[in-house]
Amino acid sequence: MTDAATTRPGTRRPDAEVVDLCAELIRIDTTNFGPGVDGPGERAGAEYVAAKLDEVGIDCTLYESEPRRTTLVADFAPEGTEPGAEPLLIHGHLDVVPADAADWTVDPFAGELRDGMVWGRGAVDMKDFDAMVLSVVRDRVRTGRAPRRPLRLIFTADEEAGGVLGADWLVRNHPETVEGCTHAIGEVGGFSLTVRDDLRLYLVQTAEKGMAWLKLIADGTAGHGSMRNDDNAVTELAAAVARIGSHRWPHRITDAQRAFLDAIADAWQVELDPDDVETTLARLGSIARMVGATMSNTANPTMLQAGYKVNVIPGRATAGLDGRIVPGGDEEFFATLSELLGDKVRYEIDVHSSGIETEFAGGLADAMQASLAAEDPHARAVPFLMSGGTDAKAWHRMGVRCFGFAPLRLPPELDFVGMFHGVDERVPTDSLEFGARVLDRFLDLA
Ligand SMILES: [Zn+2]
């Protein structure tokens, strides 16, 4: 195509703006420092998105859970969508994790273009996808192309701190904003994993682990440090923490995990030894870090507290425990934990959310494969279970089936998983443009 053809009014160009939009979003600092620490908030980011949608005639509603903690909701439901089709929820978060400029090669909030990449905090998590959505929707308005279904666009606050002031707050206080939506796409997934020149797997998140942040408590008999004490809280707690920390959780392979492992075995033409899956996973390079933790429940002791003076036995000792639970694994997790804790140590739940899982099947899954293959003939979409959590959990509670699908064709040498929350976070510009074109095709089929 010549330049004249690509810029002619009415010509489809869904990827035209995606690089600029991504760089501009990165330049708006939306750092989320977590609960209790004041930051810039997401308002400036939400206002930027609102302005870009307003420019093409799409109205937005902004919601604030707290001052500057802004979530944006908009409908794109032009004439021409299929009558009666439920809206497709497309979500992206606006906040980013902190970045310490001293560690970076570039200013993390400059949105610099260098070596064919956009650099900066949020380049892959997840202002890349926010930009794709904007670029595609704006192009569709300009060229008068309706998606198959109406779209419900939600750009959230606070995803990086669990969505308490974002997605979670939204569904609690404004459940009508996701009403009617049965399916959603957002993070994390859709990125490529190169097997060989003629085969790339695109990992679509269909499941994510749950979370149990617990406080372990041992109560004993306080007393003088010089006396015998058979009811010492520190001793009891330490023993329980050691049992939990060294426990080998049995593999629990969920359907999504099974499908992923089968796809890996098929792609690399290897037999998967169910007792030694780690060896096979090691072939995956950096992705193995993400996948390795999804084979079983995990429980890591992370904090310890007891005592105030060396010659005083305290009456209580406590520990913090970070548990991650495979979908459907809650009962086993808590039963095993109770056994490991023993009689003298109990737990209180600070945070608990169950894992979620949906089947990689149906019209949306077909649309993902077809739209990827149209832009990359060597694409194969495969489901996977993610070890971390996303806003998907909030939508899931409202009955929405969630897929992580933010398409990116990546160069094989890029340590993509390391980019998430990493130093020198960056994304190739042609990966962004690829993603926008795939997303655009997807909206015709989904
Ligand atoms: Zn994210």
TrEMBL record:
The keyword Hydrolase applies. Gene3D superfamilies: 1.10.150.900, 3.30.70.360, Zn peptidases. Residues 206-332 form the Peptidase M20 dimerisation domain. Pfam families: M20_dimer (PF07687), Peptidase_M20 (PF01546). SUPFAM superfamilies: Bacterial exopeptidase dimerisation domain, Zn-dependent exopeptidases. Keywords: Hydrolase, Metal-binding, Zinc. InterPro entries: ArgE/DapE_CS, Bact_exopeptidase_dim_dom, Peptidase_M20, Peptidase_M20_dimer, Peptidase_M20A. Its cofactor is Zn(2+). The keyword Metal-binding applies. Transmembrane segments: none annotated. This is Acetylornithine deacetylase/succinyl-diaminopimelate desuccinylase-like protein. It comes from Naumannella cuiyingiana.
